[in-house]
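ingest -> validate -> predict -> emit
validate: passed (alphabet ok, no gaps, 557 aa)
predict: started
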Amino acid sequence: MPQIAAEELRRHANYLTALTTDRSQWENLWRELSDNYLPQRYRWLLKSTEYSAQRARRQYIINNTGTQAARTLAAGMMNGVTSPSRPWFKLRVPGIRLSDHKDLSIWLEEVERRLLQIMAESNFYNSMSVMYLDMSVFGTAANLIYEDDDTVIRCYNPPLGEFFVAQNDRGFIDVFARRFNMKIHQYIQKWPDERNWSEYVKNCVKDSNGAGMGKEIEIAHFIAPNHRDLVPKKFKYYELYWEPRRAVGSDGWLLEKRGYNEMPGIFARWEVSGTEAYGVSPGMDALGDVIELQHLHRQKAELLEKVNKPSMLYDIALQNNPLGMQPNGVTFVHNLGNNTGARPAHVPNVNFDQLVMDKQGIEERIKNSFFNFLFTGISDLQTVRSASEVDAREGEKLILLGGVLERFESEALDPGIKRTFSIARRRGLLPPIPEQYRNIPLDIQYVSILSIAQRAVGTAPTERYLGLLGNLAGVDPQAMDYAKLDVMVPNYGRAIGVSESEITDPREVAAIRGQRKQEAMAAQMADAAPGLAQGAKNLSETEVGGGGSALDKLLGA
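emit:
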């Protein structure tokens, strides 16, 4: 049974209360985002009574452009950053040229293959897709990564409104806490030791009709750095589970206590403002337009109804007579002044073309706020463009995601890969590293589509410089002397994501050039051989004074 001092549990309970207060300023905004983008999904942002009344309603969304724009951004990020169909990261050693260390290069490539296989065979990519959507709409997302006997790792996405975070002095999230509900049958699966069950859980399990297994119980969860040695010092982080409803310090109040060598979760924020622990998002930027779009659709529907079924004015003499029409409103007046006995009270003059243009403008702003043009740029072009122009346009646009991509790599992908690497290594799933490299540090290089595209933007000066020299070489070939091609070509390849194993080693290049030079010399000698043979023949047949041929005289015969 896990043990911890009662005062430590009180301290964590008070810390959780403080985190709740700190997060409260965001909750109204998150609730509004949920209503206008992802209703029925974030019940944790609502009180229980609100959820019961609103769980089956989508009263805020008439036009789903905002929701689709958010999903397009999330799908584009998923495919562009952590695509399940292609490698998106590589391991390397800072300061070491892998071409000079073949055994190390082979080891790194095998480790990369196994890590990607572990991720593909687990639910890692499914959880990442949820993370991208949460980050796009709410600005903050979490993903807990635990060891699993079946799939090595297992990922869980705590929903917004359920968890709390705090960041350290370096601006990275290192404290995670949450309050969440579990079904009783889930509770006893996770903590099967009956000695640690509360009386409430025991009574639910003993319920003879089985209904108790479907009841819920609130659980508190806390992960933080192991500064107070709540677990052995060898662990950098600790994790606690407890039941808030039970008396502090009572037997079995603590459900679980564990230590970790690395943070068992990754946390991503789209953009951070100041020292805030929670991020801001494209969903927040587009919220005004999304609300305006719903309002515009309601107005258009109201105007259409007024045109199709206008309020009517009727001569009062017709008040007791049956009518053949069913207008929305009837008003009886004296002296209507026409022959029909009825006329519309008001016929609105509506310019529906202008409404359509307004709607399209708002929808375009929403899509731009979610950077949809980055992922649908080619299909959105109105005319056929050259490949170079398309590349230039895409390069300019990708600059807009540069800061977001850098933050996501450092906050989420780096710790996620390191966590997976550590779990795989502890389970003996990685090949043994060559002895001479055992203590070297490893670094991560991202080779996803977006990462490569970001780096490729930086190759523009190289392309322009070589283009200039190429043009000048047509006038003066010596212009190419100003380009260190042996340096520029491999560096360019690395910048656009070419694997180090696919770039020829400089020593091999020298050997190839030497071989080529020898072959050229041999070919030149072969071409010259017939002329030399004919010259020798001519010399041997030429008579000179004193007898003998010219060749004999030349050889001193």
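The chain has a mean pLDDT of 81.
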